[in-house]
Write a structure and sequence with these properties.
heterodimer, A: mainly alpha, 9 helices, globular, B: alpha/beta, 7-stranded mixed sheet, 10 helices, 14% strand
């Protein structure tokens, strides 16, 4: 009896996961379906671009700077063990472009913009503003989800570029100014070790992450039930699910791409 | 509030997108070797290698360390690796071009180094095959040879150690060091004076220097040589005359009579000397008889004594004479 209940619980969890995935896939398809249809609401879209992209700039730059600096410190510790300090520039640049840049940027955007998206849409849902939109023959996916998902798709890679650049600057600062590595060697090894595909694969990853986090956050927001507590719950879920999804998809993409 | 509306979301987003794209372009240019795009339609060459282990598609092709192309394709042909190279169109290869697989540093990637060939050889047309190729030296291959090499090196090393130990014994002590230092000092002084000499020579100081530098001395030597030449000519004439028996010296040299006479005179002299030696005749007795010498000796002694007596008497006589003169 006990065993059967455990099995039922497991099945329920799995079905719930599948349902979530299915709903998110439906949201994505809906977004794609609504994408070519007018009205285009350019100003509304730019507002979302600004919110997700421009307003995340500072926090992303700060994250990039410190992640680059700490990468340089940590890699130096490792390289010193076999006298490979000159490879530090390449190691920092490779880590930033391939891994740290896309993942950290996406996580920061999730924390800053994803949570806001879920809370905003959740509040609109529980205060029946979404229903009001429907009543006015404005589809919530077209009006609310599409600009956000599109903004995530466009802005997260661009933020990643900034993050990577500033991270490399930070790594340069630590490596050359603090650890005393020859600047010429540092730059030379960096340019030598990093190829264009490292950068572009990183950007492709961040594009996927941007889409993912916007999709999850919008989906959670639109699913909100109840009152303030429900909004809080979906906000938490949006952040947790996004972060977990980003890390899991990161591994899969890395295994596939490189 | 009107002024703020110009900084609407569109402008902000626009600025942000622009900056991000510029950064992306900058980083792409830095890491992506976009210079290669310019000659994507380059010339193709083929090069067979025994092994292309570690070589990758799109790997670099270099001439003298400058990238001139990419590795377009690697295929297997007749159990050899056939590498297709895409090179800059302005690169001219010759028939004796060489291709070598090399490694960048210890852990770096493999690349192909080209020697375009010498100008004397005929040019190699695009699509041609570089026949002179050399595969990479594999690291494990090198490692496999290490033990035998080490075995060879061992005795050399022990020899070197023996030498260095004996050197240590010679130079290592304070004494040895001092002598070495002295030697070096001497050497330094010698080289200094050598350089001084060289400088003097250079400046034409001293005989040797003058000899090297001044014309006058040369002219003098020239004059001397002329005189010497005429002297030799005279000598030559003289010796000719001498040989022909002309003049006194010539006769002396050539006439036998004079020699015979001299020989006879010497013979006679010899005989006289023999007689004297044997005590014959007055002169012989004088030389050989001891008694005459003794007699003479005695006589001289007597004369001596007589003279002494005279010496003793003389002062008294003188005093007497002076006294008589005064008393008078």
């Amino acid at each position: 009896m006990m065993f059967a209940r455990l099995l039922a619980r497991l099945g329920d969890l799995f079905l719930g996961l599948l349902r979530e995935l299915g709903e998110m896939a439906m949201l994505l398809v809906n977004c794609l379906l609504w994408l070519p249809r007018p009205p285009y609401r350019i100003r509304h879209f730019f507002g979302q671009l600004e919110f997700i992209g421009v307003r995340s700039l500072f926090i992303v730059a700060l994250t990039g700077l410190f992640s680059g600096m700490v990468l340089a410190l940590q890699a130096y510790y490792g390289f010193r063990k076999f006298g490979g300090e000159s490879l530090l520039g390449g190691a920092v640049a490779l880590s930033m472009t391939r891994e740290i840049g896309p993942v950290l940027t996406s996580l920061m955007v999730t924390a800053r913009a994803g949570s806001a998206m879920a809370a905003e849409l959740g509040t609109m849902r529980v205060t029946e503003q979404v229903d009001a939109l429907l009543a006015m023959a404005v589809h919530p996916v077209h009006y609310l989800a599409l600009p956000r998902v599109l903004s995530g798709l466009i802005m997260v890679p661009l933020l990643t570029v900034v993050d990577v650049f500033i991270g490399i600057l930070g790594g340069y600062f630590v490596g050359v100014m603090l650890l005393g590595i020859n600047p010429g060697t540092y730059m030379q090894k960096m340019v030598e070790m990093v190829v264009a595909s490292d950068l572009y694969n990183g950007l492709f990853k961040s594009m996927v992450f941007g889409l993912l986090l916007a999709l999850i956050s919008c989906h959670q927001g639109l699913k909100a039930r109840g009152g303030a507590q429900g909004v809080g719950l979906v906000t938490t879920r949006a952040v947790v699910y996004s972060a977990v999804a980003i890390l899991i998809v990161d591994y899969m993409l890395t295994a596939l791409l490189f | 509030m009107k002024a703020k509306s110009t900084w609407g979301p569109e402008v902000k987003v626009g600025i942000f997108v622009l900056v991000a794209l510029l950064l992306l372009a900058y980083m792409s240019l830095k890491v992506g070797r976009f210079a290669t795009i310019g000659w994507r339609a380059g010339k193709t060459y083929y090069a067979p290698f025994a092994s292309v282990s570690g070589l990758v598609l799109n790997g670099q092709v270099e001439v003298a360390g400058v990238e001139v192309g990419r590795i377009k394709d690697i295929t297997l042909k007749d159990h050899q690796a056939q590498v297709e190279l895409l090179l800059q169109p302005d690169l001219e290869l010759r028939q004796d071009a060489q291709a070598t697989i090399r490694t960048k540093g210890m852990l770096g990637e493999k690349f192909i180094e080209l020697h375009p060939g010498t100008a004397a050889a005929a040019p190699l047309e695009a699509g041609g095959t570089i026949t002179d190729t050399q595969s990479a030296v594999e690291f494990d291959e090198v490692l496999r040879r290490v033990p035998s090499v080490l075995k060879d090196i061992q005795p050399i090393l022990s020899d070197v150690r023996a030498i260095s130990q004996s050197l240590q014994r010679v130079i290592g002590t304070a004494e040895g060091e001092a002598s070495l230092k002295e030697m070096l000092d001497n050497f330094q002084a010698a080289s200094k004076s050598l350089s001084q000499i060289a400088k003097d020579l250079e400046q034409g100081r001293g005989t040797l220097g003058k000899l090297l530098k001044e014309d006058q001395l040369y002219r003098q030597v020239q004059g001397t040589m002329t005189e010497l030449e005429s002297a030799i000519a005279n000598l030559n004439r003289f010796s000719t005359r001498l040989a022909q028996g002309q003049g006194t010296l010539g006769k002396l040299a050539n006439d036998d009579r004079l020699y015979d006479q001299a020989q006879q005179a010497i013979n006679r002299l010899n005989r006289v000397a023999q007689k004297i030696d044997h005590g014959e005749g007055t002169l012989g007795k004088l030389v050989n008889d001891q008694s005459l010498y003794d007699e003479t000796q005695k006589a001289v002694k007597n004369v001596n004594q007589a003279m002494e007596g005279i010496k003793e008497q003389t002062p008294i006589t003188v005093l007497g004479t002076i006294g008589a003169t005064v008393l008078r």
